[in-house]
Each structure stands twice: as C-alpha cells, then as structure tokens.
From TrEMBL, chains A, B:
GO terms for molecular function: hydrolase activity. Keywords: Hydrolase. InterPro entries: Nudix_hydrolase, NUDIX_hydrolase-like_dom_sf, NUDIX_hydrolase_dom, WH-like_DNA-bd_sf. The keyword Hydrolase applies. The keyword Hydrolase applies. Residues 26-168 form the Nudix hydrolase domain. Gene3D superfamilies: Nucleoside Triphosphate Pyrophosphohydrolase, Winged helix-like DNA-binding domain superfamily/Winged helix DNA-binding domain. SUPFAM superfamilies: Nudix. Belongs to the Nudix hydrolase family. CDD domains: NUDIX_NadM_like. This is 8-oxo-dGTP diphosphatase. Pfam families: NUDIX.
Length: 266, 266
DNA sequence: TTAATAGTGTCTGTAAGACAATATTGC
DNA sequence: GCAATATTGTCTTACAGACACTATTAA
C-alpha cells in the first residue's frame, strides 16, 4: 500500500482536502459465525438485537467501523472477538463473503455492510451478548420443507425455531449466501478442518461428519476415505499420527492437519 | 430486504436517530474491467489520474458512492458506464471481487473500496476518460520476468509499459487478485463466454483463445474440443448453429451460447 | 445378539492430459 | 508450396460414485 509522499504538490493538496464534502454512508463489519455442535450439526451464532431498528429480532453479529482507526478486516476481527472471545491471531478462519449496500437496507441511514464468514471450533467458543444485544446463542442450521412445501433453511435453538425470512435486515440472505459459499468451497479448501475440535488429532470420520453437516447430505464412508487418503494424506496436507494404542493393539487411526501457506488468497 | 415498519416504537426511534453521531469512512466502487484484444491477449482498462492524490499515476476506474442515493452495485454500474459506455442491463458481467478498507490506503481520508470485476466484449467498448482522469486506455496484461528475475505481471499499451507496483493506491494488488479469481473461476463458470465478441456466433477455438489468455498458457486443441463438446454442448450450455456454408460445403462449426439463470449467485 | 462403527475391495463411467494423424485454409 | 488452423482418434491414468463384504465395538 503506497501512502508515502509522491510530490510536494500532493502534500499541498492533502492539506487543503476537506473530507466532509461528500455525503458518506455508514460501514459495518458483520460476521456469519459457524461451528459444529455435539450432534454433528452445523450451527450459526445469532444475537438478539437489544435496540432499534429490528429490536428483538435475531441477527448476525456486527458493528460499525470506526473510521480512521481500524481497517474493515480489523473491525470484523474485533466483532468476532467481542461475541465469541476468539481471536484471529489464534488461527481462526475469517474470510470476506460479500458486501451489501442498498440505500434502504437499514432504516436509520445508508449502511454498507462488509460481511465475513468465520469458522470456529466449538471448544474455543465463549459466547457473550455484546452491548447492543439482549441475547446470543447458537442455532442449528437445518434444511426442511416449510408450510408451503418449499425447501428452505431454518434455525433451531433449544428455545425457538426461526426461518430465514424472520431475521433482521437482509441477514437471511447473507447467511444463505454464506452457506452456499461454504458448500462450494468445501472440496477445494481446508474449510472443513477449521471446524474440527482439534486439528492436530482427529479421525477420518470426524472430518466426514463436518462435510456431511455442511452439505446436508450423507456421504459414503468408503469413498470419503479414499478421497481422504489420496487427496490429503498422499499430498501431505495431513499426517497419520498412529493407529495403535499403548499396548500395540490397532486402534482407529488418528491424523494431524499440516498448516500451510494460504493458496486461495493472493 | 425488510424495511417496512415493525412497530410504533421503532418509528419513534428512527425519527430521533442522528446519523452524524459516528465518524464515517468514504466508500468507493472500483471496477477492474477486462476485455480481449485483436491479438487474443487479455486487456485491462486503466485511467490516468487527473488529480491528487496519485496524480498522473495509472489506476483502475472508480468513484465515490453517493450515499443515500444508490447502492454500491449501482455505483459500480455507473462507474462502468461512465468509463466504457457499457450498461449492466446489456447483460455485462459485473461481479464483486473484494472490499478493502485499511485506514491509510488513501492519503485523503479513510476510504473503503468495494471492488468489482467486469468482463466486456471488445466490440462494445467506447472508452472515455471520466472527469477525474486525463487519459484512459487498454493495457495488455502480460506475465514475465522483471529485472530481478522474478515472475510478475505487467501492463503494456502502445505507449508505455508499467508494472503492478507502479499503479496508484493498492490497485496493483486488486488487479492481481482479480486475475487470480478469473483464473480460478474459469473452469466452473461462464466467464470466458462474457469475453466473446459475439456470444451467439462463435467458433470453438475463439473460446479457447480466451481461456489461453486468461491462464497465460497454451492449451491442447484436441483436449479443449473434447471438454467443449462434453461439458458444454452435451449439457446444453451451448448449441451448434451450423457447420455448412450457403453452398452446403462444410465450414468451421459455429456455436451459440445459451443464457441461463445464474448458478453461482444466491 | 444386535446395531453401529471402522476398514477394505471391486466395478463402472467419466474425464484429463499427452500425443499422433489427417484435413483444410490462406498466403 | 508452406504454415497455420481445424478436426478426429488413441492411450494412459485418475478419480467419483455405487455397492458388497468383513471386522470391531458398545449396548
């Protein structure tokens, strides 16, 4: 990023620049946070809005960018931390999904939202409602037929079940987009590993459960295993770390994920 | 997008809402515009900045979002139209690429840029420099070894050759990201068709040249043909529209692209 | 004993990539 | 004529998906 001085003339220009000349929108960083629960189902974190607009509606966590102080990525990381206690520096996946900016999507003012997807292992989650929320909890993501016989996505917690359409703002659309992206990326990224309880110690079928949860579909054990051994073990994306117990008896094999430089960004 | 009233209380809240409470960043919509030239090379449209900052540097076209008046997508479409005379309503591909928002990427003020990729057939282009630009032209995108022996991307027009690093702001990074995304999407999207001179009347190898230009790599004619017939003709993405001339003699077969609902969005 | 989980093997169809052979076209 | 372009075919390897068979473990 080149921000060093380029000319005396430019310095002069900048001194006289008035940033208030143009009408500006607000910018938020929102995060669709996914995890896996004890039942091997895909979960999404929703907060119950404590204030207007959409008071008492469920929404994805997000907050306004503090202009001049932080980048949009940093705002997203901050939001993730505030809501879950998880830090990006801990190696959590936080990836840009889409930016939405229709003038009327927020009734207060023109809000441009930069939306991220985060994949967090359940064990690391310490969920707390931020100051703008009255509640925060995980919802199981399910696909099923609604009252009109249409296949649609809905969200289930211990206390309530809500449909995509009943979320605040356009958040139903955003989560739907996030799920489709997650499904599309599954075969050529390491997204599934990010949802493992322990990346350095897992069984094949643990990973398969994650694939199944994301795709909403049962997979063939034999074929998944073949894929795993070929695409991951043979290509050194993953290492076997022993399949015998202390007594030397064969046990279910354990594997360890090998971190790599990122291959899809930049 | 739900913006209808939800409660009397919320109406009251909105009446008293003061949008000036928070410091806001500026938002721009920038567009990386690709096309193919007569030499079957990938081209990108750059403008020469007419004012500070980065005066006289080459940059991708873009402009500030008019808050409250237009969506970010509309701002990008407007920018595309101003620079090339091409309208999204004419069926031009305009796709979100990435949003960048570091506080210091623009020396004037905190600018969040939502960056799009546009794929435009050469024949439709009517390039004109916008009011903030002193020049606008197409540059061939090439890969080659720089003075340090590093493989890098650079841009060549009839008059000058510039490297990625010498573009304004972080635009080198943005174009680089756009190219990688284009390459990655090539095999599972219809991006290549968007660059055809005439989608309803083209030869197989015309499409192959586009693939080659995007991948910076020669392809095997025989194998490309097989892929084309299997994945595109058999699956009705494309239709043969005759391989005989008026006299009934066999000619190079012509194909017609069949429009479809989008499969990657939503 | 049953049911669920874990692991292996087989068969088919499809597809990618390398490469050879043969037309056709435009200078 | 040559060179570039167009078309077809062969061969090998790889892999996805369907499915059958066998162990092992836990209730």
């Amino acid at each position: 990023m080149m921000t060093e001085s380029r000319s005396q003339e430019e310095q002069e220009f900048l001194k006289n620049y008035d940033p208030a000349r143009y009408e500006r929108p607000s910018v938020t960083a929102d995060v669709v946070i996914f995890t896996m629960d004890e039942d091997n189902e895909l979960n999404v974190l929703l907060i119950k809005r404590g204030g207007h607009p959409f008071k008492d509606y469920w929404a994805i966590p997000g907050g306004f960018l503090e202009a001049g102080k932080e980048s949009v990525d940093e705002a997203a990381a901050r939001e993730l931390y505030e809501e879950t206690g998880v830090k990006v520096s801990d190696g959590i996946e936080l990836r840009q999904l889409i930016t939405v900016g229709a003038p009327d999507r927020d009734p207060r003012t023109h809000v441009v939202s930069v939306v991220y997807t985060a994949l967090v292992p359940r064990g690391l989650l310490a969920i707390k409602a931020g100051d703008d929320a009255s509640d925060a909890r995980l919802f199981k993501v399910r696909r099923g037929y609604d009252e009109h016989g249409e296949l649609s996505t809905y969200f289930v917690s211990s206390e309530c079940s809500i449909t995509m359409k009943h979320l605040a703002f356009d958040h139903g659309f955003l989560i739907s987009t996030a799920i489709k992206r997650l499904q599309g990326r599954l075969s050529y990224t390491d997204d599934a590993f990010a949802l493992l309880q322990d990346k350095s110690r897992f069984e094949i079928y643990e990973l398969m459960k994650i694939h199944e949860a994301i795709l909403f579909q049962k997979l063939d054990r034999s074929n998944f295993r073949k894929m795993f051994l070929r695409s991951l073990v043979d290509r050194q994306r993953v290492k076997e770390i022993g399949k015998y117990d202390a007594a030397g008896k064969p046990k279910t094999a354990l594997y360890c994920y090998l971190e790599r430089k990122d291959y899809d960004e930049n």
